[in-house]
Amino acid sequence: MPNVVCIGAQWGDEGKGKIVDHLGLSADLVVRFQGGPNAGHTLVVEGQKTVLHLIPSGILREGTLNLIGPGVVVAPETLLDEIEGLEQRGLKVQRDRLRISDRAHVILPVHRALDEAREEARAGAAIGTTGRGIGPAYEARVGRTGIRIQDLLEPDTLAACIDLALEERNYLLKNLYAWSPFDPEEAYALAREWGVRLEPYVDDVSVTLDRSLREGHSVLLEGAQGTLLDIDHGTYPFVTSSTTLAGGACAGAGIGPTHIDHVLGISKAYTTRVGGGPFPTEDRGAAGRHLFEVGDEYGATTERKRRCGWLDLVVLRHAVRVNGVTSLALLKLDVLTGLSEIRACVEYRALGEPVRDFPASIRRLEACESVYKSFPGWNEPIGEVREFEALPAAARDYVCWIEDELKVPVSLIGVGPDRDAIVERVNPFQA
Ligand code: GDP
Ligand code: IMO
Ligand code: MG
User: Fold this and answer.
1) What are 274-302's pLDDT values in tens digits?
2) Helix (H) or strand (E) run with residue 62 in it
3) Which SS3 state, helix, strand or coil, does residue 117 take?
4) Is the distance from the beta carbon of residue 300 to the nearest atom of ligand 1 less than 6 Å?
5) Domain CATH for 82
C-alpha cells in the first residue's frame, strides 16, 4: 500500500490539515514528524471547525492511528488540552487512536519564556515567532540538554534532566533578559504529572510504523509549517527551528526513505505569511485585502493577521526541487473568485537581471522585484464544483499554467474549507 508525505510548499497555513483530513480516508496511520504547537491545522467537517496543534489531522477519521513522531517537540499541556477538547465532543482518544513517541522532546515553560524574552529583546528585528518555545526546545535537543517524553516516565532521570535543562536557561533569563528564573522543584512536579497523564499514550513509534508497514498498511506523513520556514532552505533567520521538508519526514517518524511513494506539496492558489521576514509578492493594496478578507486569513495558532499576496512561482519551483514534489494540492482557489485580474510571479529581477532561483541572501531577496504574469479572473462561485471540467475556463487555465511552469501535476484543488470541498483529479494514494 502506498505511503504519502504531505508538506507545505510556502510559508505555512497552506491547508495541510484539510488535505490530511481529506486523505485520512485512504490512510491507516497518520504521523506528524516535526514542529510542535506552533502549528495550527484547521479541519472543517460539515461546518464544524477543529484546530489541531499537536494531534495529527487524521484524528477525525475513524479507524486511523495517529502518531506523534520523534521529530516533534511536544508541549504536554497543549496536547492534554487537545485530547480533552476532542473527548468533550464525544471522540474517544485512546491508545488505539493516538500515540506519542517516547523519543519526542518536551517543551518546558522555561523554553517558552526564553522564546518570548528573545523576541522582546529583538524588538523591531523580531522573527515574529509563535511564542510557543519551539526554537529553545529544538536548541535543547541538539545541545543535549533536552527532556524526552521517555524521561517524564523515569523519576530519577527526570530530576537530573530538569536540573540540566534549567541551569543555563535560568542564567540567561535572569542575567541577560531580567526575567524570573524557574524553580527546579516546581518544574519537576509539573513534568512528573505530565508523565503520569501521558504514559498511556507513549509508544516506540518507529516500531509501530515498521509493524504496520510490514502488514501492508498505508501511512500518511503530515508536515507542519512550510518549505520557506525550513531551517536550511527557508528565509533564514525568519524560519522555524525544524526541517519542514519531505526529506525530514523519514527521520522525524522513524522509517526509511524507501517507504515513500508520493510527495504531495501543498500550496494556496495565492500566498500568505505570518510573522516577520521577506515576502516578495506581498500585496498591500486592494487585491491583498480581497485575499485577506475572502480567505479569512487569520493565524490558526496566534490569531495574528496573515500577510497576503500573489502566487510566487520562484517559491514553488524551489519547493518542488527541495522536496521532490510528485504532485501539488492547490488550495483556496475559491478565494480568487471575484477578482478581475489574477497575477502570479514568474521570476524576480535584480539590477535588470532575471532571478529564477530563490536566493539565499535576504538582502538580495529584498532587492528583487517580482515579475508578474496576468490572468483574467472569473466571477462564478466554485464551492460546489467537484469535477475539474466544471470549473470556469479561466480557473482551469490558471491551474494548467501552474502545472506547465512547475512540470508537476495538480492532483487536488481546494474550493472551500470543508473536508469534501475538493476537486480530486488524482488521489495520491492511488497514483
Ligand atoms: P495548515 O496550517 O496548512 O493546516 O492551514 P491552516 O488551517 O492554518 O489555514 C488554512 C485555512 O484555510 C483554514 O482556515 C482552512 O479551513 C481554510 N481552507 C483550507 N482549504 C480551503 C479551501 O480550499 N478554500 C477555502 N476557502 N478555505 C480553505
Ligand atoms: P502551520 O503548521 C505559519 C512562523 C512564525 C514565525 C516563524 C518562527 O500551521 O502551517 P516559531 O514559533 O516556529 O519559532 O516561529 O515561523 N510559523 C508559522 N507560520 N504556519 C505555521 O504552522 C507556523 N509555525 C511557525 O509565524 O514567523
Ligand atoms: Mg496553520
Assistant:
1) 999 999 999 999 999 999 999 999 998 88
2) none
3) helix
4) yes
5) 3.40.440.10
